[in-house]
User: Fold this.
Amino acid sequence: NMEYYWFTHFGPNTFTDKEWGYGDESEKVFNPTSVDANQWAKTLEDAGFKQMILTCKHHDGFCLWPSKYSTHTVRQSAWKNGKGDVLKELSLACAAYGLKFGVYLSPWDRNHPDYGTPAYNAIFAKTLDEVHTQYGDVFEQWFDGANGEGPNGKKQVYDWKLFQNTVYKQHPNAVIFSDVGPGSRWIGNEKGYAGETNWSTLNIDGFGPGADAPKPEVLNSGNKNAKYWIPSEADVSIRPGWFYSPATDDKVKSLAELAAIYHASVGRNANLLLNVPVDRRGLISRNDSLRLMELRKYIDESFKTNLALKKKSTASQVRGGLKRFGASNLTDGKFGTYWTTNDNIKKGSFIVDLGKAVEFNRILLQEYIPLGQRVAAFSVDVWDGSQFKEIDRQTTIGYKRILSFPLMKTSKIRVNILDALACPVISELQVFKAPESEKLTPGN
Assistant:
């Protein structure tokens, strides 16, 4: 239920127009004039984001806090005469604005002399411990699987178990992101698009982050009936690159692009991690901020009025014939209630009677995820005045599935559960009339 939150890439690359720095840049190049983490937090709160994740250490090895385990940090920079700490400012801003705090640390280090030697894994673990003991609660730890040669020409064999245990020692409930989790997984692309089929489960035995990960198309859809619960996180940048560049000031993604990404991530059982890079002042720039506000307005207007709320609903079968599992739960607007069937019934249908013909172009479905993801195939029908007519057929639902259509009119909607791993547990069916324009009508 985090749905969407913020990623920002910030560091020497912000000032050198590089995406992957070599670690040989002078620390003095990092010298933002107006770092204001409260401006970041206020902007993101206004945009509806729930978390901020900062690239504390990218592949160049530069640390945005004065780490004891590196000489390539803000301590050696010109910013605040070496007295600054971006990580501290961010953690305080998150606390002030009620946002969750997340950190990105790349294990690849193109600057540290010990990278590529047996000593490095222990150094990186100490770096992690430093971050996880000095800056309050960490909700998410983001690991990049990138692995390249260090200054000594050697590659590092990462000790992922050590890294994960270091995080869990200080924050046992932290969500650890990597290609294969264990807390959440990469979606297999950097476009923000989850698969139309998207299971929150994944087979990871024999796999690892980076080059050892499953194929992108597997990460994009997950694995049905898999052993591990590793839901997907879809990362994408609001600009062509991950770091700020003046050349991309006029290349911020359009509202139509961001709306499509929202529907293809949040609307397909994934969380959206939207990268908005901090500029050379140390601020979220105007163009990016305005687009975020447009996105927030679009989402608010699209899902403002649930046309199915409190409407009469009936189902083909109700578990034990009990009211607490009845079809009325589908339209009560509460995620914590649900309709379900008897254990041996894995197929079924329910009808929501809207009372009169209404215009709509969005249908939102939710499974009661605390009991697992179950639906493997479903279809949606609308009443045309004399019979039900199918308008869509899909596979997974998950925490949230948003279906988009050209504007149409109906008085009744029927959802057919065609295949499920166990008796379906459906929390909500909601119906909306979103702002319609040719540019803002994403596919399913």
The radius of gyration is 24 Å. Helices lie at 13-16, 37-47, 86-97, 120-134, 160-170, 216-221, 255-265, 286-302. The CA atoms of residues 132 and 167 lie 7 Å apart. The chain is about 20% helix and 25% strand.
